[in-house]
Structure formats: C-alpha cells, structure tokens
TrEMBL record:
EAL domain ranges (all copies): 24-275
Lineage: Bacteria, Pseudomonadati, Pseudomonadota, Alphaproteobacteria, Hyphomicrobiales
Top-level lineage group: Bacteria
Protein name: EAL domain-containing protein
Keyword line: Membrane, Transmembrane, Transmembrane helix
Amino acid sequence: KAKAAGRNTATFFDPVMAEEMLDRHEIEVELRQASAEGTLQLYYQPIIDLRTQQVVTREALMRWSHPTRGMVPPGVFIPIAEQSGLIAGMGDWAIAQACLDAAKWPDGVGVSVNVSPLQFREPLRLVQTVKDALLAANLTPGRLTLEVTESLLIEDNKATLELINELRAIGIKFALDDFGTGYSSLAYLSTYPFSQVKIDQSFSRNVNADEASKAIIEAVCQLARRLSMNVVVEGIETEAQRMAVQLLGAQRAQGYLFGKPEPVSEFVKGESRKRA
Ligand code: C2E
Ligand code: MG
Ligand code: MG
Ligand code: MG
C-alpha cells in the first residue's frame, strides 16, 4: 500500500499491512512444516458424464487442515506456496499421491491433478515426477490428466508446448482449467493438445439468467466437439443448471450437485455400499 501511494508521498507504517505480512509469513512457516510432515491431504471431486451419470474422472484438490485456523482454502495457501517456492515439493507430492490413490479405486476411473505454472519452469523435474509417480503406483498413464490454467499459456513459449508434448508422449492427458476467465484465447484450444476443456463456474452460475453465459457455453461445447476435446462444465449446483448445460451440449460436469470434494475414505466407502 505504501508503494502504491506513489513516489512523492512519504512511506508510512501501515499496521494493517504489517499484520497481513506477519500473517503471511506465519502461514508460510506453518505450510512448510505441514508439507514436510506430510499432513497435507488430497480430496477428490467427481467429474461425471451427463448422459450416463457415471463418474469419469476425479479431480484431486489439495487440503490443509490447520491445527488452529481450521481448513485453509487452497485459494489462500497455493499462492503462498508459489511465492515461497514450496509449490515444487507440494506439487510433486500431489501427483505422486493422486496416482497412488487412483490405482486403488475400485471403479478404475481417471484422476486429474492441478499443476502450477511454476512447475512448468522445471521441466526435467516435472517429467521425472510424472514418470516416478506412474511407476510407483503402477498406474496406466492414460488415467492421469494434468489441469493447467491459461496463465501458463500467455507466456506462449515453445518450451511449454514441447513439455506438454513430451508428457503426452508418456501417455498422460491435459485439461485446460477455468476456461473463460482471464485471458481466454480460442487460439489456445488449437495450439495446445488438450484432451479436455473445463468451462469456468462463473458461466454455469448464471446459465439460467444470462443469455451470454448460455451462448458461451454452447459455443465452447461446439468448438470442443469439432476439435475432439471433452468439455466439463464446472460448478453445477442445481438441477436447473444441470439441465441447462446439458441442453447446450455439455457432455461432462462437475459440481456440488454430483459430489463435493471428499477424502478417499469417504467415497470408497460409498462405492462399496452401492456395490454391496
Ligand atoms: P479448480 O482447479 O478450478 O477447482 C475447482 C474448485 O471449485 C474447487 O475449489 C472446488 O471445491 C470448487 N467447486 C467444485 N464444485 C463447486 C460448486 O458446485 N460450487 C462452488 N461454489 N465451488 C465448487 P478449491 O478446492 O477451493 O480449489 C480452488 C483452486 O485451488 C482450484 O481451482 C485450483 O486452482 C487450486 N488448487 C487446488 N488444489 C491444488 C493443487 O493440488 N495444486 C495446485 N497448483 N492448485 C490447486
Ligand atoms: Mg482444476
Ligand atoms: Mg477449475
Ligand atoms: Mg478454479
């Protein structure tokens, strides 16, 4: 804040900012500890096929249950992990753990893992992490998808495309996450070999009130079909939204209507109940 005030104003001590910085630093120290002690968790949220209602993939979402702060949302701790360099180790762990978990699922569906753009800055490490994870879990590469956001692609360097292609050669897939937010460019869909595009939840939230959201969902679904990609509409919470996006051509969806993110023990229990 002091910086934003400009060159001609004297910097001053802002107690609110000081407290925020202290808080951030504390969170970083505690996050480093949690990561080292192995107390971070992965929850999983189903992605379902709208026609069959079957789970087709589960997305791994990182959870940090803090002893006094409670559940710290990834929207808070991921940026801190990125700024502090912790994301490298946390990201490796997420890929490895997700593969181990998926290998044990009774239904054999795929698993998606979110990957930070910073993990792409260490290509050798990312490739090694993926290979090690698949090998250790004995997971078929085709069951692993990495989710990336547009922020990775705006840098538009050849290295990113090469790395994606190298990982695809191993057999894993890529999804473009949160499509429609940020810098969405249709060119990303043709430049990069995504298997799946995930339409951001801001569009499904308004789908029954807003013609523009409808038009965008419909257009992206059509485009994706032409490019042989799957579409997932994120953030479906109501039956009305489900019906609307299905009519607009969506094949797959994710959202609280179908299932919230939960620890493995919860849905594996549910599965065996259903099967019994
Ligand atoms: P994302 O990858 O787009 O994940 C979807 C987010 O939407 C998740 O939030 C999920 O809990 C939430 N969500 C799912 N269905 C609904 C719904 O019906 N309604 C609403 N309101 N929300 C829904 P979450 O778990 O808080 O994660 C937030 C973001 O943090 C993720 O967005 C992802 O960008 C990031 N993140 C989470 N885990 C990881 C990770 O392991 N690595 C990295 N790099 N980022 C992660
Ligand atoms: Mg995601
Ligand atoms: Mg998303
Ligand atoms: Mg998101």
